[in-house]
Design goal:
Keywords: Cytoplasm, GTP-binding, Nucleotide-binding
Oligomer: single chain
CATH topology of the largest domain: Rossmann fold
Number of strands: 8
GO biological process, one term: translation
Binding site for GTP: 121-126, 165
Function: Required for a late step of 50S ribosomal subunit assembly. Has GTPase activity.
CATH superfamily of the largest domain: P-loop containing nucleotide triphosphate hydrolases
Radius of gyration: 21 Å
GO molecular function: GTP binding; GTPase activity
Helix content: 40-55%
CATH architecture of the largest domain: 3-Layer(aba) Sandwich
CATH class of the largest domain: Alpha Beta
């Protein structure tokens, strides 16, 4: 993390706007703490990605809170492009303001430099590809796809910088790490998938137990029983020799279904 932040500080010298990218399902915990200290007086636009996987009512509440706090914020679905137009408008307005200031100083206009910043796998590269209108940045469904900084030219005389995601030093605090794991933003293999699945299961039992019944063909009693993974594993046939439920395989199936939105649209924290 210290090396990553040092690298980010180096590139911040050359950018005009920072797109802070966070996951709409975890709008607070998937952001850098104290980012304002790192950015200084640079313009920041908060982009909540994967809005299609989050509760739309909760997302609207979060946007109101961020806007009220003085942080411009937009929710987007990079896969479909929903919300990207509003983001472009935000960026264009900032670009016009920046160019006006350069003109007042007698400086020649140059491409506005925009930097995308966020923790691993919050959807930075997918967002930049949508803004660029082509597959210019590498994307993937696991943390660590972006290995090095990439400049991307987009319309409106702007240049985008995609950077590798960096986790902050205290991301492993109890609870935070598991929630990040639930949305796929923690390094693979670091957290026990069964613990993540138990957290997801507990959350769903409190919010929408019926989705477990429908998705996995278990009864309401089984869904609310002492061992949800046991019930799902047996129904799915995820068994080891001797008829023992493969807990890890079952947990992975539940977590992957949750991440992909097959169990519904949920926001894991509220303002």
């Amino acid at each position: 993390m210290p090396a990553g932040i040092k690298s980010l500080r180096q590139y911040l010298k050359f950018v005009d706007i920072v797109l802070e990218v966070a996951d709409a399902r975890l709008p607070a915990a998937s952001r850098y703490p104290d980012l304002g200290t790192i950015l200084g007086n640079r313009t920041r636009i908060l982009v909540l990605t994967r809005a299609d996987l989050a509760d739309p009512v909760a997302t609207a509440r979060w946007l109101e809170v961020f806007q009220a706090g003085g942080t411009p914020a937009v929710a987007v679905n990079a896969r479909t492009g929903e919300g990207v137009r509003a983001l472009r408008q935000q960026m264009a307005g900032t670009a016009k303001e920046k160019r006006g200031k350069l003109a007042q100083k007698g400086l020649r206009a140059r491409p506005l430099r925009v930097m995308a910043l966020g923790i691993p796998n919050v959807g930075k590269s997918s967002l930049l590809n949508r803004l660029a209108g082509r597959g210019a940045a590498r994307t993937g469904d696991r943390p660590g796809i972006t290995r090095g900084p990439q400049w991307i030219r987009i319309e409106g005389n702007m240049e985008l910088l995609d950077t590798p995601g960096v986790l902050w030093s205290h991301w492993q605090e109890p609870g935070t790490a598991l929630w990040l794991g639930a949305i796929g933003c923690a390094p693979e293999g670091i957290l026990p998938v069964t613990e993540i699945a138990n957290l997801v299961g507990e959350f769903l039992l409190g919010k929408a137990p019926e989705v477990l019944v429908t998705r996995y063909g278990i009864t309401r009693q089984e869904a609310e029983g002492a061992n949800l993974l046991e019930a799902i594993g047996r129904r799915r046939g995820y068994l080891l020799p001797g008829g023992i439920v493969d807990q890890e395989k079952t947990a992975l199936a539940l977590v992957n279904d949750f991440r992909a939105g097959y169990l519904g649209r949920f926001t894991l924290e509220l303002p």
